[in-house]
Design goal:
The structure holds 2 protein chains of 2 kinds. Chain A is of the alpha/beta class. Chain A has helices at residues 35-47, 62-65, 97-113; strands at 2-11, 14-19, 22-27, 51-52, 58-60, 68-73, 118-120, 127-138. In chain A, the strands form 2 sheets. In chain A, strands 1, 2, 3, 6, 7 and 8 form a 6-stranded mixed sheet that branches. The two termini of chain A are 19 Å apart. In chain A, 43% of the residues are buried. By secondary structure, chain B is an alpha+beta fold. Chain B has 1 helix and 3 strands. A two-stranded parallel ribbon of chain B has the order 1-2. The chains are: A alpha/beta, B alpha+beta. Chain A binds chain B through residues 5, 26, 44, 47-50, 58-59, 61, 72, 74, 76-77, 79, 81-82, 89, 126-142, and chain B through 4, 6, 8-9, 11, 13, 17-19, 56-72.
């Protein structure tokens, strides 16, 4: 999760998703993940307090500030860098694409149900993700069991 | 290669909605390790540009793929 001033995603030079201030979510799905994890993660993203109040403290959530979310699938996050051997990332713990896409969709639906305006990339497509990370603030969220 | 320091990935978000950063190094230590990392990467032959340690920054980038890897040494 990255706090952004703006973010957009293009596929073959076409802008398919674009937001103003809010969060960029790069979403990786692991093999053992299921719908409850997708929904729990959506709740966390909506309520994570990473926006400053008047005193400059992290006190406000995406919901509090009325921010938007741009969600893009990112299976490379599932690489386990501690266990991998050599220099090539090991993605064997990532969910199969059919499963990952269903959970990615469920996450987006759940985040919209929280009241967040959600834009998305195109699952599985080669994309260019442009963003301005404000802070920078980058948080790794893991709701896996 | 452009480098950014980020203590936020050390946040523990398992409890509640406020990230806890108690696992992050104190800034003096973090800055030295950050500088050492940059130097070591330059020594590998990589051109390295840096942010300003501890400053409020805007980081603009185009992630190609996208490809994002978590590394933990």
């Amino acid at each position: 999760v990255q706090r952004v001033r703006r973010a957009s995603v293009t596929v073959a030079d076409d802008v398919v998703g674009e937001i103003e201030a809010g969060v960029m979510v790069l979403l990786g799905v692991a093999r053992l993940d299921a719908f409850p994890e997708a929904e729990r993660l959506a709740g966390k993203v909506a309520r994570l307090r990473i926006f400053e109040n008047e005193d400059g403290r992290f006190d406000r959530s995406l919901l509090d500030v009325g921010g938007e979310a741009l969600v893009v699938s990112q299976f490379t996050l599932i690489a386990d860098s501690r266990r991998q051997k050599g220099t090539r990332p090991d993605f064997s713990k990532a969910a199969r694409p059919e499963v990952a896409e269903a959970l990615y969709e469920r996450f987006c639906v759940a985040l919209r149900a929280e009241g967040v305006s959600v834009q998305t990339g195109v699952f599985g497509a080669r994309m260019q993700v442009s963003l301005v990370n404000d802070g920078p603030v980058t948080i790794v969220l893991d709701v896996g069991s | 290669m452009h480098l950014e320091l980020r203590f936020h990935p050390l946040a523990d978000t398992r409890k509640g909605n406020s990230p806890s950063f108690t696992g992050a190094a104190i800034p003096e230590v973090a800055e030295r390790v950050y500088e050492r990392f940059c130097s070591a990467l330059e020594a590998e032959g990589v051109r390295v540009a840096r942010g300003v340690f501890g400053a409020r920054m805007q980081v603009e980038l185009v992630n190609d793929g996208p490809v994002t890897i978590l590394l933990d040494a």
